[in-house]
Amino acid sequence: MLGAATVLLDHAMTRGVAYGVPVAAASNLPANPYGVNVELDKIVRDEDLRRSVDMIGGAGFGWVRQVFGWNEIEISAKGDFFDHKNGKSAWDKYDRLVDAADAAGLQVIARLERPPDWARAPGSADSAPPIDYDDYGDFVYAFVQHFRGRIHYVQIWNEPNRFEDWGYQPVDPVAYTRLLQIGYRRAKEADPSIVVLSAALTPTTDCCTKNRPDPVYLQQMYDAGAKGFFDVLGAQAYGLRAGPEDPWQDLPLHPNAARKAIVDSHNTNVGRVVLDREVMVRNGDAGKSVWVCEFGWNALPSGWSGDPSPWGSVSLDRQASYTVAAYQRMRREWPWMGVANVWLFQDPAPAPADPTQFFGLVGQDFQPRPVYTALANVMHLPPAAATGNHSAIEGSVTYDGAWQTVSAPSPSPSGMASPVSAATATLVFDGSAASVEVMRGPNFGIAYLSVDGSPTYATEVPKDDAGRAAVDLYAPSPAASRVAVAAGLPFGRHQLTLTVSGRQSPLSSGPAVQIEGFGVGLTKDQRTAYAGGILLGLGLVLLGWKTLAMTARRLARYSGGASQRLAALNGRLAALPGGLLVPLAALGVSLGLFYAGRPLPVALFGALLFAGAALWRPDLALVFVPLVAPFYLQPRHIGALDVPLSEAVIWLCIAAWLLRSAWRGEWAWPRSELMWPALLLFAAATASVFAADYPRYALREWRTDVLEPLLFFWLLLTVRPPLRPMLRALLLGGTVVALAGVVQYARHQGIQAEGVLRMVGVYRSPDNFALYLGRIVPLAAALALLAPEPRRWRAAYAAMGLLALVGVVLSFTRGAWLGDFAALLVVGAFAGRRWLGLMLGGGLLAGAALGSVQARRIQSIVQFTPGSTGFSRLELWRSSVAMIRDHPIFGVGLDNFLYQYPRYILPLARNEPDLSHPHDLALDFWTRIGVFGIAAMVWLQVCFFRLAARVLKVAAGFPRAAAVGLVACMVDTLVHGLVDNSYFLVDLALVFWLTVGLLQTIEWDSPHREESVP
Questions:
Q1: Radius of gyration of the chain (CA)
Q2: What is the reported pTM?
Q3: Distance CA 71, CA 402 (A)
Q4: Which is nearest to 27 in space by CA: 236, 429, 339, 332?
Q5: 518, HSE (Cβ side, Cα atoms, 13 Å)
Q6: 785 or 525: which carries more pLDDT confidence?
Q7: By three-state DSSP, how is residue 389 classified?
Q8: How far is residue 922 from each of residues 624, 881, 894, measured CA to CA in Å?
Q9: What percent of the chain lies above the pLDDT cut of 70?
Q10: Strand partners, 496
């Protein structure tokens, strides 16, 4: 229930937030979204009118929303636009206002309402609809025609779902829709370019005789045929007594405020506009924007004795912070949001007891209130693109170098193109994800992309050999294309820079780059969803386990010992010659079917078969984890998911183990001292996820390098698979990796670096290749020298070890050479003096030979002049220590080093800016998962070597040989870890916990063991 509640809470807290970069932009989204409501018609003196519009324009507003009363323009009779009382044209009053706004550079949104007496029913209020809706349509036509070229936006009525604004009579969405249809048609007849806003519906929960909730009313408008009769949906977004922000910010300390901020039908708050947007989307109007016609907070002065404020009241400072935060939220979360008009600039002639005046940005003396100053400060910040789609020539984009505007046939009339090397286009944006719209075609070249000055933060773009985020824009025929540049950035202000490389692919006829536009979006923080999903999953597993266990107990009463007979049959099958081959073959075939099966149902059938076979022999199913561990870079593709085979095997084994243990009603906690440091490591890694600035990547590594390897470790201690098949599977997987490397090397394939060809095998990096094979070499050597096996097996182990050693040597990875040298010395120490001497001499001889071939490369390790490897490592370690000083407790988060390192990199180490780890095991653990993580690793090593000492005292035969090999594996891990990543890769994490887990099972299975510490 807690998990389900967390998932539902996350959904409620993020309702309406648009994640990802929008694929298509809504219409009518102006660059300046800041508007303000005005009552310029109440201003008498011309100097006050000029002062008002100058203050509005000077603050940075681009829009004013003004009521144009029908009853003050067509006053006496239909078609009579003369003010007989004052002896002048009725248009004069409003021409004055529009001219003043135009002179200040302000666009006017005209709110058309208030029918004159002759158009309304006798005795009705001036907010009542006209008797004949065509009269209103004629007025709209006359108004738009009169102000054509000066007013481009009109709003048809205001708040018709409110009793008072529909003439103090029951609201009628069908009637208003008819009024909207007539007003829309007549406005377009007068000026086809006019933009028509629907009435802004008041946020209300009252239902349903007098008022009507805005989402309900809007749906009834659609039912009555409103679609197609407005260009922009008008809405209100008053905060009332609630703040403007998302509820997560208030949840920990102010749960009541968080509840009021949730978007639902029970709350009237800023976020309620999302409900209206959802109605639009359901009715096929997602392509239209929403404009907020009114929003704001009232700030009554202390000691106010006038009428109480029905909207609540906040302090002046809170009014300012709330209003700024509301604009920020609209720009951040809702790419469909256009202009938002704050209520109100000033009430020029307030009634003494009227609290409405305290919405004002300025007082009657034009003295700015804090809200005016705060908004002016925000609006004068350098322009930055908000969430949504943006043209190539917006103010938030700057160009450096030779660029020119693109003419047809560009899809965008405002595209920009350049063929000149080093020409740049820079977008400043507020968001956590970004994309660029470019043209691909036969004459386009290669573009480089960076975010915040580094290709590292262009997280979605593949990197070339030089570490640049490069996109080849060649295509056989011209077409616009969206290129995802970054995702998962911390929300905030960033810079996306596109640079023309001046290079092109061999097929392209030119190096030009053409930009059509940009996109900005949000990346959803999955941490809460993960937490809720895990809690929900654990709850469902526990419920299913209990249910299945209860069912098994009831069936056992009537089965007549069938379970025991089935277990006995299984034992007899296993005892047959080659008894292991049948389940291993079944498991292997089903796993192959999952990996290679086409179409997808065939693959899923293979997974189901594997799970069934794992139910039969869970111990043998685990054998396939070390076998397939090194092939995580060749995953099974299921839709958008990439599923490594090791991951699939672990989860299928977990499912099978849960079903099997539930059926048997067995649950046992492994009594191993290794469990406690493992749990501390898990806790530290989990905490680091919540501390990470880039949680998207932290969650991925948490799953693949922490959770799943620890689940594998749990299975090893619980299921206790047979030792020989597990080790042979590990060696077989390593042999395939080494063979792949040798075959590639024979074909002159690999990574060319520092004058040598470096072997990579199934990996993308020679370092990763050597990190994995470095574990294989000492294990194979220990079994070849110490295991009491038939000669053919010892020869096979020796061949596997030699092949892996060739791979390590030809990877030209110095840390791997050092690690294997130390690990082989450990094996030699247990094999006898002759073998120890041979390995010591062979290692020194090999070192001398390699030193003569790679003298410069090896010398650079111990040189500490700028440019040498030794110097670069020291600078890297100094940067890592600085990172630890800033993040000592939780670290920077799993897989976050790459994204934090550019902030800490020292000037003389900038030749390697894109490092994903600090090239040291201790620093790696501390920077990733904090002080508790490094403490867990130290604790784990102490427990491991204490366990090794006990095992080597009591174990004999093959288990002793295996124990020596596992200890040597750990030595290689630690020694190689002095200068490289030695844990945080999928294969390395699995081999690490395999090493630890198998050593524990050897102790448990030893016939003469001493009692282990529980």
A1: 36
A2: 0.80
A3: 56
A4: 339
A5: 31
A6: 785
A7: strand
A8: 30, 11, 14
A9: 89
A10: 427, 451
Are the C-beta atoms of 622 and 580 separated by less than 8 Å?
A: no
Say how many C-beta atoms besides its own lie within 10 A of residue 493's C-beta.
12
Residue 270 contacts residue 244 (beta carbons within 8 Å): yes
Please give the Cα distance from 34 to 93 (Å, whole number).
Answer: 25
Give the C-alpha distances (Å, rounded to integers) separating 148 from 110, 117, 138, 155. 12, 26, 15, 15
User: How many C-beta atoms lie closer than 10 Å to residue 488's C-beta?
Assistant: 23
Stretch (H or E) spanning 340: strand 337-342
Rounded to whole angstroms, the Cα distance separating 525 from 19 reads 10
H or E, element range at 643:
strand 641-643
Check residue 738 and give its pLDDT: 96
- How would residue 257 be classed by pLDDT, with cut points 50, 70 and 90? low
Place of tokens 């046992």: 668
Characterize 231-241 residue by residue with b for buried, 16 or more Cβ atoms within 10 angstroms of its Cβ, and e for exposed: bbbbbbbbbbe
According to the model, what pLDDT value does residue 327 have? 96
Q: How confident is the model at residue 1011 (pLDDT cuts 50, 70, 90)?
A: very low
- Joined together, the tokens standing for residue 805 give 């050693």
- CA-nearest of 577, 581, 586 to 614 is 586
Q: What is the pLDDT of residue 22?
A: 83
Helix axes 921-954, 897-904, angle to 10 degrees: 130
Q: Is the pLDDT of residue 681 over 70?
A: yes
Query: Which of 154-163, 232-241, 910-919, 966-975 has the least mean pLDDT?
Result: 910-919
> With 60 as the cut, is the pLDDT of residue 475 above it?
yes
Q: 910: which strand partners? A: none
* pLDDT confidence of residue 1014: 31
With tokens 């810079």, the residue in question is 495
Give dist(CA 152, CA 191) in Å, integer.
9
Q: Which two tokens stand for residue 778?
A: 């000492």
Q: Is the pLDDT of residue 1010 over 50?
A: no
> Which secondary-structure segment (H or E) carries 797?
helix 791-810
Residue with tokens 């900005």: 520
Contact criterion met (CB below 8 Å) for 516 and 393? no
pLDDT over 60 at 457, yes or no: yes
- β-pair type (34-38, 63-69): parallel
Q: Classify residue 495 as exposed, middle or buried by CB count within 10 Å of its CB (0-12, 13-18, 19+).
A: middle
**What count of other Cβ atoms lies within 10 Å of the Cβ of residue 58?**
13
Interatomic CA distance for residues 1001 and 718, integer angstroms: 9
Sign of CA dihedral 227, 230, 233, 235: negative
Other C-beta atoms lying within 10 Å of the C-beta of residue 957: 11
What is the tens place of the pLDDT at every residue in 21-66? 887 788 999 989 999 999 999 999 999 999 999 999 999 999 999 9
Q: What is the DSSP letter of 472?
A: E
For residues 1001 and 724, what is the distance between their CA atoms, to the nearest angstrom? 12
What is the residue whose two structure tokens read 């799970």? 611
DSSP 431-469: ESEEEEEEEEBTTB-EEEEEETTBGGG-TTS-B-TTS-E
Alpha-helical runs (H) found in 262-369? 273-282, 316-333
Q: What is the largest CA-CA distance in the chain?
A: 121
Lookup result for tokens 């020292």: 906
Determine the 3-state secondary structure of 228 from DSSP.
Answer: coil
- Alpha-carbon distance 966 to 830, whole Å? 13
Predicted confidence (pLDDT) per residue in 722-754, tens digit: 999 999 999 999 999 999 999 999 999 998 877
Q: In the β-sheet with 233-236, what is the strand arrangement from edge to edge?
A: 195-197, 153-156, 107-113, 63-69, 34-38, 337-342, 290-295, 233-236
| Six token digits for residue 379 | 């609006």
Which structure tokens are listed for 289? 């924007």
798's CB contacts (< 8 A; 6+ apart) are: 780, 781, 784
Cα–Cα nearest to 521, from 692, 398, 696, 389: 389
Sequential DSSP letters for 735-788: HHHHHHHHHHHHTT-SEEETTEEEP-TTSS-HHHHHHHHHHHHHHHHHHHHH--
